[in-house]
Amino acid sequence: MSEQTLAAAPAGTGLLPRLAWRRLAVFTGLLGLWQAYALWLGNPLLLPTVDTTFAALWSGFASGELVDRTLASLRVLLVGYAGGVAVAALLASFAALSRWGDDALGVLTSMFNPLPAVALLPIALLWFGIGMPSIVFVIIHSVAWPLAVAGHTGFRSVAPTLRMAARNMGLSGPRFVVEILVPAAFPQILSGLRIGWAFAWRTLIAAELVFGTSSQSGGLGWFIYINRAQLETPSVFAGLAVIILIGLLVEGLLFRSVSRLTVQRWGQEQS
Questions:
Q1: How many angstroms separate the CA atoms of 259 and 255, rounded?
Q2: Which phi and psi (to 5°) does residue 132 adopt?
Q3: What digits encode the pLDDT tens for the residues 146-205?
Q4: C-alpha span between 234 and 58 (Å, rounded)
Q5: pTM
Q6: Cβ neighbours of residue 61 under 8 Å, at least 6 residues apart?
Q7: Which end of the chain is less congested by CB atoms within 10 angstroms, N or C?
Q8: Domains in the chain and their CATH numbers?
């Protein structure tokens, strides 16, 4: 958008307000469709109304149960996500610095990237038992491979002239990766982090739905499972709403802010 266009635009009609209004309109429309279909269906056991769901959501937060369940899920998620990022960073760095590493990463990602994390839950249960370690294990699996592929693809796209300039400056090993490859490939890395976050969040909820940890310390997936068993459908939808809201907050506040402060400011991506 040119400076003349921005100057001529009335106050409050910039790109960000217009984008916010469009998204708010979409969100409101979805809520309206949900409410209309729930009223037409007339069966709260199958689909509660919007107001009933928000009442259950408020009750869950007021009682503290949803807060505890959410914090339990986020603790496990952060540990697993950090572990997956660390594994992916090591794999992608080794692949960028060594031909053996490149071949090894290609074989490993071909083997494990298509393997659903949920499929490893029975193995994780055998190895680690019912608890946090088994869920962390499958989260690491869900994050590491797509992020390693994204990072490696970004590293390979770095211009040869930039690589040669770095070599002439005496950069090699970890310094070469951190100071040259990571900044140049950051748009692809950020995209991989977004994909890894989505995979981690879905894997966590699926793992908690299948195994949970215990009725005392389980997270949002366990909350949904328990309320489904008790036929508390509004509470089930309340748990789903929390999952969606956390996803929107992480995407809107964290990843968009990082993108705006880095790749968009550097001119590597259009806003």
A1: 6
A2: -60, -40
A3: 999 988 888 888 777 877 777 777 777 777 787 778 787 888 888 889 888 989 998 888
A4: 11
A5: 0.80
A6: 67
A7: N
A8: 61-261 (1.10.3720.10)
